[in-house]
Design brief:
7% of the residues lie in helices and 44% in strands. The protein is mainly beta and 467 residues long. It folds into two domains: 32-242, Single-stranded right-handed beta-helix, Pectin lyase-like (Pectate Lyase C-like), CATH 2.160.20.10; 260-467, Single-stranded right-handed beta-helix, Pectin lyase-like (Pectate Lyase C-like), CATH 2.160.20.10. The strands form three sheets. The chain has an 18-stranded parallel β-sheet that branches. β1 (57-59), α1 (71-81) and β2 (86-89) form a beta-alpha-beta unit. It is globular.
């Protein structure tokens, strides 16, 4: 990955020590948001800053209708609430955003979203006014950045995605000629200490969230939904995506988005995912990585516990690119534990021939992403039967090293028969009996079709339209 695609880790300053003098007062310098908290009478948060009860609330006017853009007022409100205040977007009110906004200056701010923050579907405007990220040609309408940012409440961020779903019909995100860029609903960049809780993320045009160059970001008790009201289904509406992130946490959250539920991407480490429900998704994926030529990517230190995965394409997945012009890297120290996977095409899969790459190309130019120290513990449920009896499909690239991959107490069944574990090129085995993909392919079902179809890409059947 070239420097323009955010290579490497970025140095972040350590949190400042917090010391609180005795008197309780604040100064708002002519609306510039220069709150100087002298003490926190009620208490402090995880970062040593005052809690909600000790903050002065700021409000902005709500929109009169869906054409009433209050972007300028919202920017002013953010500035006023910055450095120790609280911006309140009130319940029952709608706040329409029709201009791109740069909130990269934030420091010690609470945003209480109880109303609806809704983006316009003015595609003509947003196609020429956005913040751009070279990684998979990503764009957004708002950048959240800075330090100590808390967004909470009972409200909604609404991406107003239907017009985007209609306009993108028939297109693909990874098509090099594609210039129809769709905004990501929520993006952090150059941010440290970000907490989001209680918020509903609705109908994002593309990925729901994207954390870039961010340290310590946590989502709790959130809900994600992306759905179409016609035949033009949402595409690439992942729940979570990351790039160059250290400290990524998702807990007590529900997602129904039609693509990856959670998908940490290059250079993400220290991941914790727990008590998450995913319906109609492409599962909890580590990757994809290794996409860009000559670039080292990695994902390390992930713990995924107590996740329910229903009616999906994949469940627990590791994915890496293969091909002539791709990168290299590693996925290391990943634990999936206590998963309930139901009616899912591929409950557990290692795919190193991603994305829609022909099998002969993968053989000639195999993935160079090494996979090690991976555990699947206490996994139960059923496949959909779409891939015959194969319920675990671990196919390591011949160009990579895959070792210390273990399956423990996994009980997965197929409606077409006893579940089969397929593994290729895994050093030392996986701890349970498995067959090679070649052996699995020889087995015939009652319909005469192959029992094990191999991975998504070999048969060019991958429905995952990128990322």
């Amino acid at each position: 990955m070239k420097s323009s695609v955010f290579t490497g880790l970025f140095c972040l300053l350590p949190p400042l020590a917090f010391a609180a003098p005795q008197d309780i007062s604040f100064i708002d310098r002519r609306g510039a948001g220069q709150f100087q908290q002298r003490a926190c009478a009620t208490g402090t948060d995880n970062w040593g800053n005052c809690v909600e009860a000790d903050r002065t609330p700021i409000t902005v006017r709500a929109s009169a209708n869906d054409q009433d853009d209050i972007s300028a007022e919202l920017m002013e409100g953010m500035k006023k609430a910055n450095n120790g205040g609280l911006l309140h977007l009130e319940k029952g009110k709608k706040y329409i955003i029709g201009k791109k906004l740069d909130f990269s200056f934030l420091k010690d701010i609470y945003v209480k979203l109880d109303g609806e923050l809704k983006f316009t579907d003015d595609i003509k405007y947003w196609q020429t006014n956005y913040f751009y990220y070279p990684f998979q040609k990503s764009i957004t309408w708002v950048v959240w950045g800075g330090k100590d940012i808390k967004i909470f409440g009972t409200g909604t961020m609404n991406g107003n995605g239907q017009a985007w779903y209609d306009g993108f019909a028939g297109k693909e995100i990874l098509d090099e000629s594609n210039t129809y860029y769709r905004p990501i609903l929520f993006v952090t960049d150059n941010a440290t200490n970000v907490e989001i809780s209680g918020i509903k993320f609705l109908n994002s045009p593309c990925w729901s969230t994207f954390m870039v160059r961010t340290k310590n970001v946590a989502f709790d008790k959130c809900r994600f939904d992306s759905a179409s009201n016609n035949k033009n289904l949402p595409k690439n509406t992942d729940g979570f995506d990351t790039l160059n992130v250290d400290g990524f946490r998702v807990t007590n959250t529900e997602l129904d988005v039609g693509d990856d539920c959670i998908s940490p991407k290059p250079n993400t480490t220290n991941i914790h995912i727990e008590n998450v429900w995913c319906n109609n998704t492409h599962g909890v994926s580590m990757g994809s990585i290794g996409q860009y030529p000559g670039t080292l990517d990695y994902i390390t230190n992930a713990y995924i516990k107590n996740v329910t995965l229903l009616n999906g394409q994949t469940g627990a997945r590791l994915k890496a690119w293969a091909g002539e012009k791709v990168g290299y890297g590693y996925i290391r120290n990943i634990t999936y534990e206590d998963l309930d996977i139901r009616n899912t095409d591929q409950p557990i899969v290692l795919d190193q021939c991603y994305f829609n790459v022909k099998s002969d190309v993968c053989k000639k130019f195999p993935s160079r992403v090494n996979i090690s120290d991976i555990s699947f513990i206490n996994v139960k449920g059923t496949s959909s039967g779409k891939r015959g009896t194969t319920v675990v499909n671990l196919k390591c690239s011949p160009g990579a090293e895959c070792k210390n991959i273990k399956i423990q107490n996994v009980s997965l069944e197929s409606p077409k028969g006893k579940g089969v574990v397929v593994c290729d090129n895994i050093a030392g085995g996986v701890g349970v009996p498995c067959v090679s993909s070649e052996e699995a392919a020889k087995k015939k079902g009652s319909s005469g079709k192959r029992e094990a179809e191999g991975n998504d890409s070999e048969e060019n059947e991958d429905e995952d339209e990128g990322s």
